[in-house]
Amino acid sequence: RALTTDAWKNATVHAQNALTLDPTLVEAYSALADLARIDGRWDDARRLYLQGLEIDPRDVTLNLWYSEYLQDVGQLEKALAQNQYVLELDLLSPGANTNLVGGYLALGDCKAMEAPARRAVALGHDFGYFGPILCAVSEQRWKDA
User: Are the C-beta atoms of 66 and 49 separated by less than 8 Å?
Assistant: First the structure.
């Protein structure tokens, strides 16, 4: 975990308090859902993502993190479609472009990952380099790697 136990608990408490004050606060659903996802509480994460998306189906962060959840639970095609939706909302999202690289990598589609990898790197997300490198290694294209 990137967060300490205290920070984890505090984030959860504050997000829950925020929902008590405003049950339509999508950011609180995003935070709680992602904390549940990172903690491996898959059913809770799914429920919270979907509750937030019911309130605002166009929230970029919530949709992005939901695409990561879908990939984590092995729904690779759904994750890819979800991530492509995020790019419709925000083509210049470094995270969405990087997630697209990861999605194509998981599906073994090295050719499709090239454009989003270049966009991710151009937008300042260094992970964009890793997908094409891993594909080059898997295909034994040593010069490209």
Answer: yes
**How far apart (Å, rounded) are the C-alpha atoms in residues 129 and 101?**
9
Angle between helix 60-72 and 42-55 (nearest 10): 150
Three-state SS for 17?
helix
- The model's pLDDT over 107-129, given as tens digits with 9 standing for 90+, comes to 888 788 878 888 888 888 776 66
* E strands in 6-56: none
Question: CA torsion sign, 120 to 121 to 126 to 128?
Answer: positive
Residue 62: other Cβ atoms inside 10 A: 26
